[in-house]
Design a protein that fits this description.
With about 675 residues, the chain is of the alpha/beta class. It is about 45% helix and about 15% strand. The protein is elongated, with a radius of gyration of 42 Å.
């Protein structure tokens, strides 16, 4: 049937020659001879018409018969299960890093084609970010997150210098197990590090090389994302200042601080004052002063290092606990004198820096904090205690995220009694470890977001810290880093005018070879989580967008607008009726005519319309997606893409899976 026109022409020619042989033109007919004598041109016209009809008549008849046979007898249905996919490349054996999003058939219609292809994002395009947006049950985790995680984490799995490390965040508590199974399946079980309330790892978000203000600012930004930003900036500035100086005091005294220490110091000024007194003893050189008469009356004191201080008119000696006990035993009146200007050993710049920082804390405490009215001071404290108190009333949380300083001491914690300290992300990233936060949101939604955000910010700082290192060592082969976040709206943060925020990290992470892949339920989820219109700034940092089925009109409309418009031919029909001798019917009272004519017209016009209407996004089936892909050089037009769930054979076509009932 595909060659029926050629066959019809050949058969018509054969029938025509046979008819010409059996029924030649009757030139000897007397009537035709008479026509030939009077009008030879008419005779030749009749002859040529006769000869032509011998061939055209069977051709027309055969064409009609073939068309009827094609329509009613041999009409073929399109085969939906015979499309052959190219072989799916084994992720563990790929020579270069790339990500297969799914299979592509017809780019505009959900129908198979004889030669489908894979939609592939090369390494350069992976660094520009991928966001998966789909409603509940649309297959984000099974069709995108798990297959994508396996493709990236299995790359160079046997090469310890090139295997991919990263951070995994989730809220349901099951995705972490999938990641662990992937790593175990590819011989990377030792690279998996899980942080939860039941593991041996301990993580202190404040134990890093950031200064006190940066840590306090990070906590303030987290509170803004958790509870919203107030219209009055005084409160944020006040509790940021409080947290900064509490952190600074602990870092100066102990070189260590936890969130519980910040909470305890914020709600109890007496503890702060006690620690300040402790700092005065630490940073001040204390001396014992006694009268000259008392020194002369007790010859046994000549062995002690007393010297005459002419300005004070007394004998002085460096304070020691032993000397103080001697004076107490002899009942000699003494005075302890502190000289903070002489604290620290000569040339000890770090000690001098700490002393100056301690003096700053003292000035803030005595000349700022204590001078604030108690009621106002209480209001400032309440602004942060609502969050920091979580690390006091939950012993398990305090044990994991507020570990003692001995946890980081290899000698004091040699037996692991305080748990195992989570290594810095700068170290985890470079050795290819995959850290996963398994903290289900069902336990405490606000707390899960807080911990995940703190962990994410720590990871982001470590990743951005790679940029100058990569620039200095361009010849070194740097491993890729994966940021994988399911239900991203639970962890998304934006800085807006602040220097922090996910939108700023994703804009810079390309240089650090970071591969961000996140999934969220809808654009509306990001819109309701983030302040103002900042969701637009965050969304544009992901160059590759994968839209699964969407269940709200705002997300569907936004997705349709992102896919753009194009010029399309629009078909239109018009019908008209004309009548002659029109009149009004006596029986019906309606207009009627004796002669009427109905005409129909069909026209095409070019219009700019959406490539995919919002309705299309709401009607996508399971494992169907519309993808806006970016390969690192050029953006690709929006196209239908069929995902490959991890529990199905990737070498079998989507339409074949549908025919088998697997989807």
């Amino acid at each position: 049937m595909a060659y029926r026109n050629f066959i019809n022409a050949a058969l018509a020619a054969a029938v025509g020659f046979a008819a010409l042989h059996r029924m030649p033109f009757p030139e000897a007919n007397p009537l035709l001879q008479l026509v030939f004598l009077h009008e030879p041109y008419l005779f030749h016209a009749i002859k040529f018409a006769y000869l032509a009809m011998l061939f055209t008549t069977p051709c027309i008849a055969l064409s009609v018969a073939g068309s009827l046979a094609y329509i009613f007898v041999l009409r073929q249905e399109k085969d939906t299960g015979l499309a052959t996919l190219p072989a799916y490349p084994d992720p563990a054996r790929r020579a270069s890093l790339f990500l297969i999003l799914g299979e592509v058939h017809h780019p505009r219609r959900p129908e198979p084609v004889p030669s489908p292809r894979w939609l592939t994002i090369p390494e350069r395009g992976l660094y520009t970010g991928i966001i998966v947006i789909g409603a509940i049950g649309s297959g984000k985790t099974s069709g995108c997150m798990v297959p994508y995680a396996e493709q990236i984490l299995s790359y160079q799995a046997s090469n310890k210098d090139r295997r991919v490390g990263g951070l995994v965040l989730e809220v349901k508590g099951d995705f972490c197990h999938k990641v662990r199974e992937i790593l175990e399946r590819h011989g990377r079980a030792e690279d998996y590090i899980e942080l939860s309330l039941h593991t041996r790892y301990r993580y202190n978000p404040l134990h890093n090389d950031l200064d006190a203000y940066a840590l306090a600012y990070g906590i303030a930004s987290l509170l803004n994302n958790l509870f919203g930003r107030g219209k009055e900036p005084f409160w944020q500035q006040a509790y940021t200042n409080l947290v900064k100086f509490v952190i600074l005091l602990h870092k100066v005294l102990y070189d260590y601080v936890t969130l519980f220490d910040v909470y305890e110091g914020a709600i109890n000024p007496a503890i702060l004052e006690q620690k300040i007194k402790e700092g005065e003893r630490l940073f001040s050189r204390q001396e014992l002063l006694i009268g000259i008469e008392d020194f002369m009356a007790h010859p046994e004191l000549e062995t002690c290092p007393f010297e005459l201080d002419a300005e004070l008119g007394a004998m002085k000696a460096p304070w020691t606990e032993e000397l103080q006990q001697i004076l107490d035993g002899q009942k000699i009146v003494y005075e302890i004198h502190s000289d903070s200007h002489n604290a620290g050993a000569p040339g000890d710049n770090r000690a001098e820096e700490k002393r100056q920082q301690f003096e700053a804390v003292k000035r803030w405490f005595y000349h700022d904090w204590l001078r604030i009215e108690p009621r106002l001071r209480t209001s400032i404290v309440e602004g942060i205690s609502v969050f920091l108190s979580l690390f006091d009333d939950n012993p398990a949380l305090k044990r994991v995220f507020c570990p003692p300083k001995e946890t980081y001491d290899t000698v004091a914690n040699a037996d692991g009694r305080y748990g195992q300290a989570l290594p810095p992300f700068s170290e985890l990233v470079e050795r290819g470890s995959v850290c996963a936060l398994n903290f289900p949101v069902s336990a405490n939604p606000g707390l899960a977001k807080a911990i995940g955000t703190l962990l994410k910010q720590d990871f982001q700082r470590a990743v951005l810290g790679r940029i100058p290192k990569i620039e200095r060592e361009k010849d070194r082969a740097w491993r890729e880093v994966l940021f994988l976040c399911d239900e991203y709206h639970a962890f998304a943060t934006v800085g807006e005018s602040d220097p922090s925020g996910d939108e700023k990290f994703f804009a810079l992470s390309r240089q650090a070879k970071c591969i961000p892949i996140v999934a969220t339920q809808s654009i509306s989820s990001l819109r309701s989580t983030l302040p103002g219109e900042s969701w637009r700034t965050l969304l544009q940092t992901f160059r590759t967008k994968i839209f699964l089925a969407l269940s709200d009109d705002f997300s569907a409309k936004t997705a349709s607008e992102l896919c753009g418009k194009e010029e399309q031919l629009k078909l239109s029909y018009s019908f008209s009726e004309n009548g002659q001798d029109a009149g009004v019917s006596v029986l019906t009272g309606r207009a009627a005519a004796q002669r009427t004519m109905i005409s129909a017209s069909k026209s095409y016009n070019v219009q700019r319309d959406f490539v995919f209407e919002p309705k299309v996004f709401a009607e996508l089936k399971n494992a169907q997606a519309i993808v806006l892909a970016y390969d690192g050089f050029n953006p690709h037009p929006a196209t239908y893409c069929y995902l490959k769930p991890y529990f199905l054979d990737p070498n079998t076509s989507y339409f074949e899976h549908v025919a088998q009932g697997a989807l």
